[in-house]
Amino acid sequence: MFMGEYQHNLDKKNRIIVPAKFREQLGDIMIVTRWLDGCLAIYTQDQWKSVYEKISQLPSTKREARRFVHMIMAKAAECEVDAQGRICIPAPLVKEASLEKACVVVGVSDHVEIWDQTRWDEYYANASEDFEEIAETLTDFF
């Protein structure tokens, strides 16, 4: 399980530190891809296989399914952790998530997300305003 929020900087070579707690679970090679709400998602190789299996079940005859698969799979990349605990994020993914220097690495249950700091702050502030209302719509799940 991934949880917590960590601030890290993206360097000029598009490298970012993956928090040690997350690295222990993610392993030395992880999959990074475009994700929802303008962030990137990081999965372990095993988790990615599960995501791939689910994605491959989507009907290729449905336009929305094809679009979703393209958006997730086209940008996916294997990233290896270096000796300093960093991964190098491919330039297209950096652009996709509008990552600048200041970033937030967030544990989200079954995966990790990387957000541009400004985008995260805005997203979190908006979600916080509606937190109770959101919770009420999800009472069947708790």
UniProtKB/TrEMBL annotation:
A biological-process GO annotation: negative regulation of DNA-templated transcription initiation
Boundaries of every SpoVT-AbrB domain copy: 5-47, 76-119
Subcellular localization: Cytoplasm, Nucleoid
Keywords annotated in UniProt: Cytoplasm, DNA-binding, Repeat, Transcription, Transcription regulation
First and last residue of the signal peptide: none
Classification via SUPFAM superfamilies: AbrB/MazE/MraZ-like
Source organism, top-level taxon: Bacteria
A Gene Ontology cellular-component term: nucleoid
Disulfide bond among keywords: no
Main location: cytoplasm
Family: Belongs to the MraZ family.
Self-association state and partner proteins as the record states: Forms oligomers.
Protein's UniProt name: Transcriptional regulator MraZ
Organism in which the protein naturally occurs: Erysipelothrix larvae
Gene (name only): mraZ
